[in-house]
Design brief:
Layout: H1 14-33, E1 43-50, E2 56-62, E3 75-84, E4 87-94, H2 115-118, E5 124-125, E6 131-135, E7 139-145, E8 148-154, E9 160-163, E10 170-171, E11 176-181, E12 187-192, E13 207-210, E14 228-237, E15 240-248, E16 254-258, E17 262-267, E18 272-277, H3 282-293, E19 306-308, H4 316-329, E20 335-338, H5 358-371, E21 374-379, E22 383-384, H6 390-397, E23 403-404, E24 407-408, E25 411-413, E26 416-419, H7 426-442, E27 447-450, E28 462-464, E29 484-486, H8 526-529, H9 533-546, E30 555-557, E31 569-571, H10 579-594, E32 600-601, E33 603-604, H11 613-623, E34 629-631, H12 646-661, H13 663-676, E35 681-682, E36 701-703, E37 707-710, E38 719-724, E39 727-731, E40 737-741, E41 745-750, E42 757-761, E43 764-768, H14 775-778, E44 783-788, E45 795-805, E46 819-829, E47 832-840, H15 843-848, E48 851-861, E49 867-871, E50 874-875, E51 882-887, E52 889-890, H16 898-902, E53 904-910, E54 914-915, E55 920-925
Parallel strand pairs: 19-20, 19-34, 20-21, 21-27, 27-30, 30-31, 31-32, 33-34, 40-52, 44-48
Antiparallel strand pairs: 1-2, 1-5, 2-3, 3-4, 4-18, 6-7, 7-8, 8-9, 10-11, 11-17, 12-14, 13-16, 14-15, 15-18, 16-17, 22-26, 23-24, 25-26, 28-29, 35-36, 36-37, 37-42, 38-41, 39-40, 39-42, 43-44, 45-46, 46-47, 47-55, 48-53, 48-54, 49-50, 49-55, 51-53
Length: 930
């Protein structure tokens, strides 16, 4: 719907001007959100054929041309293929000219055939029918011929997952539009990166713009650092849950309008390359999705330890003091980081010779490496323009930079004037790999942190280095543009006909980034490739680190795209030290698990400004259970290391103490993520999929299938109301305490300042160790198995697993002689209990000498009796084995019969020396408690 305003200049009072501006903005928003059916008549299917590879290839012709947002592309090619049993692809592009797509070398996938390649086959005239189906194993593609529309159905129950008949297809050079109907009770998740104030579920009429932007994460409903055009759709059909996902593989800027009963894509370029993943469970959806985009990267064991960083560790002595103070406070710390403080003039791959002199830094690294600690530093993509700077010189010599009118595009970031490497250029990747190698020879860092890679630019437009003045001059804030710049708006790439809601205010898409008419390798426009910059840098950085001694890389990236999790971890960017930001961090973390980036976390205690002491207490209690756990702060904020307040130190020792005991469990979850895509941190509905009360829950989360974290997220609270799905839940800090829920319900938990509520779900076995302050030491302590049965169960089964490997190996897998995988099982039947293990590739665990020292069994009825143990085929001497029992404690008002309560106990079998790498069987009969 369009309207016009008189162009005659008006002189209005200020209130009238404000009102008119508000009216225009509202009218534009209504226009942007409207469907296209009234002005766009869509396409009709002219012909279609089934090709030899089992795909459909069709020809679409525009029905009625118009010039709104540019001329229609007259002929389109339709390509449809059931690529796997659970994945359907629908690809629509220009039938006559090649268009930009996400590079196939960055995200490997099948290339659709060109229309010319299929002309020799048997073509079907679409005038002879009005609709047809193309069925696969799990999904059915249904299409209508005139106007062309399609839907995707689930074969098992006929549910329509996607239905484009909601509005007509629009396909122009710089404007693509496609919509789908949705049932109003569907729960949608994804479409990031954005900070969602309403929680993890997509909220109707909120703004969802996808375009990588250096905008602080404190901005709500705004396009942030990453672009993930994928959503998961969870529906409860007749009491049974079904999930599926839809990916639009397109890197161009886009607005996605979700209205509750519909979803509309408005994209400013590229193609429609849609992938449908059938599920039907949330875990199956992520499995199918990551099988396509790339499984999450293998992470070293130490990455699951605690990390400390700050922008403002101005010299090595400060860094050494931080490490020493963590040790004095007995707070776990595995990794120390520096922001750009270690650099010479904030230039990549350099050292400040005064504040971080190389001999002293090498001595410091030798010391912490001997203890098992690690060191990670920042690298920004902008390469300082400086003729005496070797990195820049070699970059110029290899012609690695993005161009504008034949010259390297000039921008400004922290070093001042910079050029940006073009990671789509193979020569650039080779140069970057070499620079990573050179820097590692200078400083043996253990990982790299790639920041500002959206790309961020302190200036806008076409810039030159000013003459006669220093830029930057060292007095103004470093983020103020000091280059001489002019706006670049003369091309349709800099000023496209459709304006996405960039930065939440419809700023030009070249604002504070690379001009979108700049050119990459092979003539690729920044307009098209903008949102994959961080992704391409992650790939190059991964290649660089992998080439150093063949060790497993660790990379943390700010900007992400579809597939980034295959190479890197992510943190959620510049947040604030507020209670609201603490709450938002959970939703963002859970979203990235769906995006295939499970190694994720937020800056603990907030990047800026100063957090309160109470907030920092509560934040470390949550952050200790982020998959990636790091405290980071801005140079302008007061110091906020966890030892700065004694109360925070106590909370940190408590929460991180539990994390370090759970490291083998977290590492096993990372193996599960690496092999199946399963998120490490998950929404509760991933396990309790039929429980509709949990579909919007954004204040609690699971680690794996059954470890639930229920934090305090508000000030001045000593209690927290938490949702408990049906079953038995055991307090991880005192496993004698149990909560039993017959149905999903809210329970009020005690939560004094130093307490974080973490509960273990029934039917689960968790491997734990004794903890410590460095993961290297904690990893070699004896194991305890915690076996959780339903409270008072007379019959039940539990299962758990443990993955162990040499975490310096690039690959995280079995079959290399340096890994072991153990499945643990337990059963109870009346008064008989049994726990046993099944070991795959035992050699590595046996060489390391890991032992199980203790087994704690929860929820049993009666008391422990005589224990029998077999290790392999040998009977184990149990004379030193100690069996103890402890009555379970119950939450008040719990709906459990008093007679049942009295007979339920926690049984602990100690004094064991069972080799983790050797199969064992342990059994006993429970005595009846008087």
């Amino acid at each position: 719907m369009f309207f016009s305003l008189p162009l005659t200049p008006l002189v209005l009072p200020s209130f009238s001007r404000i009102f008119l501006g508000f009216f225009i903005i509202c009218a534009l928003f209504i226009d942007l959100a409207s469907t296209s059916s009234d002005v766009h008549k869509g396409y009709r299917l002219v012909s279609i054929q089934e090709s030899s590879n089992g795909s459909l290839v069709g020809l679409l012709q525009v029905k009625q041309k118009n010039n709104i947002y540019g001329p229609d592309i007259p002929l389109l090619q339709l390509f449809v293929k059931h690529e796997t049993e659970d994945r359907l692809r629908v690809h629509i592009t220009d039938a006559e000219k090649q268009r930009w797509e996400v590079p196939y070398n960055l995200l490997p996938r099948e290339k659709p055939p060109s229309l010319k390649q299929t002309l020799g086959g048997q073509r079907k005239d679409a005038n002879t029918f009005t609709s047809a189906e193309f069925a696969g194993t799990e999904l059915i593609f249904v299409y209508e011929t005139d106007p062309f529309s399609f839907s995707v159905k689930r074969k098992s129950n006929g549910e329509i997952l996607f239905d484009s008949s909601y509005s007509n297809l629009v396909f122009k050079d710089q404007y693509l539009e496609l919509s789908t109907k949705l049932p109003k009770d569907a729960s949608l998740y994804g479409l990031g990166e954005t900070t969602q104030p309403h929680g993890i579920k997509l909220y109707p009429n909120d703004s969802y713009t996808l375009y990588t932007t250096d905008v602080s994460a404190i901005n709500l409903n705004t396009d942030l650092y990453g672009s993930h055009p994928v959503y998961m759709d969870l529906r409860n059909v007749g009491g049974e849950a079904y999930a599926h996902a839809v990916l639009l593989l397109n890197s161009n800027g886009m607005d996605v309008f979700y209205r509750g009963d519909s979803l509309t894509y408005k994209v400013i370029g590229g193609v429609f390359d849609l992938y449908f993943f059938s599920g039907p469970t949330p875990l199956a959806v992520v499995d199918h999705y990551t099988a396509f985009i790339g499984r999450p990267a293998a992470m070293p064991y130490w990455a699951f330890g605690f990390h400390q960083c700050r922008w403002g560790y101005h010299n090595l002595s400060v860094v050494e003091d931080v490490v020493d103070n963590y040790k004095k406070a007995k707070i776990p710390l595995d990794v120390i980081w520096t922001d750009d403080d270690h650099m010479d003039g904030r230039k990549d791959f350099t050292l400040n010779p005064v504040n971080f002199p190389r001999p002293k830094l090498l001595a410091f690294l030798e010391k912490i490496h001997a203890q098992g600690m690690k060191y990670v530093v920042i690298v920004d993509p902008g390469i300082g323009v400086n003729k005496s700077y070797g990195v820049y010189q070699r970059g110029v010599a290899n012609d690695v930079f993005i161009k504008y009118q034949g010259k390297p595009f000039l921008a400004q970031v922290w070093p001042g004037a910079v050029n940006f490497p073009d990671f789509l250029n193979p020569k650039t990747v080779e140069w970057w790999v070499d620079e990573v190698r050179r820097f590692h020879e200078l400083v043996p860092v253990d990982g790299l942190w790639i920041d500002m890679n959206e790309v961020s630019n302190f200036c806008t437009g076409l810039c030159t280095i000013p003459e006669g003045r220093i830029c930057p001059n060292g007095t103004a804030p470093g983020w103020e543009c000091c280059l001489d710049c002019k706006n670049v708006t003369q091309t349709r790439w800099d000023d496209p006909p459709y304006k996405i809601n960039a930065s939440g205010t419809q700023v030009p898409i070249g604002y504070k980034t690379i001009a979108t008419s700049a050119v990459h390798y092979n003539g690729v426009l920044e307009y098209d490739a903008h949102s994959i910059y961080g992704f391409s840098q992650s790939i190059a950085t991964h290649k660089g680190l992998l080439g150093i001694e063949g060790k497993r890389p660790f990379i943390l990236t700010r900007s992400t795209y579809v597939g980034s999790g295959h190479y890197a971890a992510h943190w959620t960017g510049d947040n604030k030290g507020t209670w609201e930001d603490l709450r938002y961090s959970i939703s963002t973390m859970l979203n990235f698990g769906i995006f295939g980036v499970p190694m994720v976390g937020s800056d603990i205690c907030g990047f800026y400004p100063a957090p309160t002491e109470e907030l920092c207490n509560r934040w470390i209690e949550v952050g200790a259970f982020y998959p990636f756990s790091r405290d980071h702060a801005n140079f302008a904020s007061p110091r906020q290391e966890l030892y700065q307040w004694e109360s925070v130190a106590e909370s940190a020792r408590n929460a991180l103490g539990m994390r370090y005991k759970l490291l083998p469990y977290l590492y096993t979850l990372s193996y599960e993520a690496h092999t199946t895509g399963a998120p490490i941190a998950r929404p509760l509905f991933f396990t309790f999929t039929n429980e509709t009360k949990l579909y919007g829950l954004s204040t609690q989360f699971l680690l794996g299938r059954g470890l639930m974290v229920s934090p305090v997220l508000e000030s001045n609270k000593t209690e927290v109301e938490a949702m408990f799905p049906p079953g038995s839940w055991y307090d991880m800090f005192d496993t004698s305490k149990v909560i039993v829920s017959k149905e999903t319900r809210a329970v009020v938990l005690d939560a004094p300042l130093h307490v974080i509520n973490v509960h273990l779900y029934q039917n689960t076995i968790i491997p734990m160790q004794q903890g410590g302050t460095i993961s290297k030491d904690a990893r070699m302590t004896p194991f305890t198995l915690v076996v959780a049965f339903p409270l008072g169960a007379m019959k039940g089964k539990c299962k758990g697993s443990l993955f162990l490997d040499d975490d310096e190996l690039p690959e995280m897998r079995l079959g290399n002689g340096r890994s072991t995988y153990v499945n643990f099982y337990a059963t109870v039947s009346k008064d008989s209990f049994k726990v046993w293990s099944d070991v795959e590739e035992s050699k590595f665990a046996l060489e390391k000498g890991w032992i199980i020292e203790k087994v704690a069994v929860l929820g049993l009825r009666g008391s422990g009796g005589t224990v029998d143990v077999l290790a392999g085929n040998e009977v184990v001497d149990t004379s030193k084995v100690e069996v103890s029992t402890q009555d379970h404690e119950y939450l008040e008002k719990m709906e459990v019969d008093d007679e049942v309560k009295m007979k339920n106990v926690r049984v602990e079998i100690g004094g064991l020396e069972l080799a983790v790498g050797k199969k064992f069987v342990m059994s006993w009969k429970m005595g009846i408690k008087a």
